[in-house]
Design a protein that fits this description.
With 146 residues, this protein is mainly alpha-helical. It contains five helices and two strands. The protein is globular and about 35 Å long.
């Protein structure tokens, strides 16, 4: 994966804050979710080969961002030069647990994550991760070796 220098901290995510407040988060929670989401995006940029697990709170911001597909596409292209894929339904796998442990070490918010990915906490792992395209042979974006 070839990343541009990440502009995650420069993205205008005010619409995402608004969407999160409309969905039930108070303004403080929405601002925190988006701030952590920026750190999540910056972690992806800094460690492009790592599978990275968002927290439950970060995943709310990620989903809100993806629900604005044009903006999500534009922001990903600006920050990374490609779309950042969201892989759901991965909890309970060794790959997920390894990615969660790595995220705790790599991400600026890692120390705020509980040791157990499955804790009942907004900073525990969401049921998804960002996995580099092409890692999975069944990934339709995987490039075939020549």
């Amino acid at each position: 994966m070839k990343h541009k220098t990440s502009n995650a901290y420069e993205l205008d995510l005010s619409e995402i804050v608004f969407d999160l407040t409309r969905s039930g988060l108070d303004a403080g929670q929405a601002e925190r979710a988006v701030s952590l989401y920026r750190d999540f995006l910056a972690t992806i940029a800094a460690h492009p080969a790592a599978a990275v697990v968002p927290t439950k709170l970060i995943d709310k911001a990620w989903h809100a961002h993806m629900c604005r597909p044009k903006k999500y596409h534009q922001d990903c292209m600006l920050a990374f030069g490609e779309i950042i894929d969201h892989t759901p339904g991965v909890t309970g796998t060794a790959e997920y647990e390894a990615a969660y442990a790595a995220t705790r070490k790599l991400a600026p918010f890692g120390e705020s994550m509980p040791e157990c990915a499955y804790a009942n906490d907004d900073m525990a792992g969401a049921d998804c991760f960002r996995k580099e395209p092409g890692e999975d042979q069944e990934d339709p974006l995987a490039t075939k070796a020549a």
